[in-house]
Amino acid sequence: MNSTVPIIATSRQTRFHPTSSTSLDLDLHDVTLTLGSTELLTSATLKLSPGVKYVLVGRNGTGKSTILKALAEKLIPGIPGGMRIRLLGQQMEAVDAREGETVFEWVVRSYKEMEEVKSRVGVLESALEGEAGGVVEVLRRFEWEEKGRELAEATRIASLRSGVRGMKARKEQKAAEKALEEAEKRLKERYTDDIAEDTKKAATMLAELEATLEDMEASTASTRARALLTGLGFKPAIIDSPITTLSSGNLTRVYLASILFQRSDLLLLDEPTNFLDLTTLLWLQDQLQQHASTLVLVTHDRAFADAIADEVLILHDKTIERFAGNLSTFYKMRAEKIAYLTKMSEAQEKQKEHMKASIASAQAAARKSGDQKKLAMVKSRQKKLEDRMGMEVSTKGTRFKLNRDLPGYHKTSRATIDIPSIPPPPKLHLPTPPHLPPTTPLISTTSLTFTYPHSPSPTLRDTTLTIHATSRIGILGINGAGKSTLVKLLLGELTAKANMVTRHPRVRCGYYSPAMVERLAGEERTALELLGRETEQEGRVELSRLGLGGKAVSDVPVRALSGGQKVRVALALLLNPPPHLLILDEITTHLDAETVETLAKALRKWEGAVVIVSHDRWFVRYVVEGETDNDDGEEEEGEDEGVQREGGVYAVVKGRVRRLMGGVEEFEEKVRKGKVK
């Protein structure tokens, strides 16, 4: 979303709301959040407990990134002023590097609070060693700076509050303005104070600042910064090179190192696994599991989310729901709850219709015979009909309480069956590929070895791989292992020696890479114009099958679409004409968790061949290994049991491509044991 659009946030606060600036609890009620004219939250509740790891989920465009930004900038009234909040966003500001500053130096300097304390310690030490008047000047300057910060905080709070609390905040703002004026006046006065007393104050302040540095672990700052950068995959030569020479992907990892390097109370991470290979992803996973801060994580990687989440925050219908457990458990239990309540509701509807028919029959018979006693019984049964319908047990499976035992007015004795409403799954339909027999080899390699010009050693060695018409193949490996080289050789973008790569004469390939989205970032044409179909209707039909429609495809330039929408545009381009083989390189980046699941299900059912290059473990397990979310291992609805799927999971390690019989789990184990480098 456009960062220039204003974010407006409100929340309900009372005079009993805690105002402690050191509180680590976040308890916000009736939160309303708008981005420009778009309302993202309405009367929502957001409660974060210290040290708990949360995963925030929601469809693309529902406002996850905006919520994180509103929290980081403390735009929502009720966020403690002293809470240290760090944000890693998807769109970072330009790096503020000094001339020639290295990656390591920038990360250390990014901890501004520590740098300021260090600066104050140095100034105080110099003042105490110099002339007596210097101590007075330093103390007064420190006081003036502190009053300036207090005024800035008072102004921020006053801008967020209204009513009685707003009036009180504005009074505090005026008091802070007056305090700053007095501090500025003292700063300009001659030093007539008790110099001995000021020297004592300076010594006490110096001791306090040194204790603060110790709490910040300043003595180990250099070691920690290098360890974080190394853990995120940077070589020593890169760590000590100018930060301005890094690519956007490497800069994102540097920003992540900076966020982890600084002390925080609340850590907000928006898609931190982008640009990470599995080695660094697992390292980050371990780091976050041990991190003491409260964490709110937005990620498309379900395996990563499941490993970290204590609770899930579900952004849906402009509210935030909570679920105690990880993401997979939430999806599973939600589906089970909907199925259970739907079955109960349908059974009761049948029972209700049967009772209605029985009552109508008894009523007709009583009227015909003129039996007033039977008519009264019929009326009594009719009156009780609705009263008997509703929950047979509570939603938790325990005995329900009759509504007559609960406060308020109720039309029935039992609680109504409230089936959770969820938006329909994201739309994503893949076209049927041209027919080829399932056992037809589309591309095969035999003892493939490839060396780039001027390279001292081969990038790939002795690689034998066959992709059949219905294969499902996953390719894993760390960054720089040779995965992209292998894909380019399969596609013919790089030329191997004769007879090393064989392609079926009719094979059509559709290749997705992150570079496609990067190229679309500068595309001024609309999706319909870019697709270039003969009629607008034809283009709209193709795009609607991938979940794109309305004004987004006809009025909005592609560059202004969200990352997830750009991925869909890229898919539309490579799916026409329909290919026999899809090669998808890190396609889950930019997609939300539910869209990733929808894409995985579509790929699993697709009749063509699929090669996936990805660090998303759940995605590869589901599409390639046939893993199911069902505990009983049964086929999921829509699964094509008649299609023979060949392939498996392959790892590219030190230039060699080998099949992993243990699949993704085996590769993850090798990474953890340090066998993949």
From TrEMBL:
Chain segments annotated as coiled-coil in the UniProt record: 166-226
Q: Which GO terms describe its molecular function?
A: ATP binding; ATP hydrolysis activity
Q: Fetch the InterPro entries from UniProt.
A: AAA+_ATPase, ABC_tran_Xtn, ABC_transporter-like_ATP-bd, ABC_transporter-like_CS, ABCF, P-loop_NTPase
| Keywords of the record | ATP-binding, Coiled coil, Hydrolase, Nucleotide-binding, Repeat
Query: Domain ABC transporter: where?
Result: 26-342, 443-656
Q: Which SMART domains match?
A: AAA
Query: So which residues are the signal peptide here?
Result: none
Q: Which Pfam families match?
A: ABC_tran, ABC_tran_Xtn
Domain of life, source organism: Eukaryota
What's this protein's name?
Answer: P-loop containing nucleoside triphosphate hydrolase protein
**Which source organism?**
Ascodesmis nigricans
Q: What is the lineage of its organism?
A: Eukaryota, Fungi, Dikarya, Ascomycota, Pezizomycotina
